[in-house]
Amino acid sequence: MKPKFLFILPLIVLFLSCEQEKDQPVSLLIAGDSTAQSYNTTKTLMRGWAQMLPQFLDSTITVKNHAKAGRSTKSFIAEERWAKVIEETQPGDYVVIQFGHNDASSRPERHASYPEYRQNLVNMVNDVKAKQANPILATSIVMRTFKGKALVDDRLLGYPVITRQVADSLNIPLLDIYSRSRDMIIMLGDEPSKELYMWFGPGLDSIRPDGSEDDTHLREAGATAIAKLAAEEIKKLNLNNLSSHVLLP
């Protein structure tokens, strides 16, 4: 019996090690702009979708939100914010990269041309891979621009398209939040969709005391809705050590 046990023992050890590796806690790092950023809930109604994402993940996943308002791929890299993300990234972690809103800006410190934006995304993906971690590209959330009854989002230009193209060419997982959020806002319509964005009258927000008519930034309901879309996309991708930890109602 002893020789047979000695043969089985390595198999048991291998099985247990695989189970431990499968359930190994990982971090989900977010690089992005104001639509993903975390905000002080005592000072403003504004919320970022990545701020609300932890409620859709179990306790084994740690969300580290590095998103910062006003940043493009260009300025996020120039300010060494990206270097900090990479410094914190450990093997097996996931890094979501979502830009575009500010890359489309005319401000020179933010604006990245189409070729520059594409190359910045490629460089970011390669940096994550170099850390033996897992890059995920994400398109920007839709901007709530209605003309009549039609949703017309022409301010993001071709940046969501380029994000999709880079994900496809590099075989990188994609969270197509732009398409998902656009569908959601179309179905809600003009007036109801204002409840998701920073649309409100005076006296409700200390940072915007005179009220707000903002078609870009989100309130809690909107950020939660986008976070749920992102979680659904993560679940569908069947990503090792991540998708199985998504919690959906």
TrEMBL record:
Keywords on record: Hydrolase
Pfam families assigned: Lipase_GDSL_2
Residues in SGNH hydrolase-type esterase domain copies: 32-223
Entries under CDD domains matching the protein: Rhamnogalacturan_acetylesterase_like
Coiled-coil regions, chain positions: none
Entry annotated with the keyword Hydrolase: yes
Keyword Hydrolase recorded: yes
Assigned protein family: Belongs to the 'GDSL' lipolytic enzyme family.
Official protein name in the record: Rhamnogalacturonan acetylesterase
Originating organism: Carboxylicivirga linearis
Lineage, broadest ranks: Bacteria, Pseudomonadati, Bacteroidota, Bacteroidia, Marinilabiliales
